[in-house]
Amino acid sequence: MQINYKYQFSLLFFVFNILTFGQVGIGIPDPDPSAMLQVSSKNKGMLLPSVALNSTTDQITIPSPAEGLIIWNNGKGGLSETGFYYWDTSKWSRLSTITPDMISKLDNAEAWNITGTNSVIMADPAPICH
Description:
The protein is an alpha/beta fold. The chain has a domain of about 70 residues. It is about 10% helix and about 20% strand.
């Protein structure tokens, strides 16, 4: 009776890989247990994919985008407004729509004018910027 060691080794390797699932760390030896991926650097950032979206409903540039997928729209497509976008069910939504020109200081009493459709409710009226 001949034993097929190649088959047994492959099966053992497959089972071992299933049991050793863990976190991935880039630039860090021990990633946090609550994170799937942790990136660490003292002098570099993380660069997300730069994409030229054609519109907020574009599903051609990235076919079948996953819910919550995050990209940087570089403004070179039909959607010229650059920024971070995420896929939300059937459309690309900007992570932030507030730009510096939307916020203007009214006077020295730390009053602010915020133009937009989102609400900001503050329990503490202390100044938010100094």
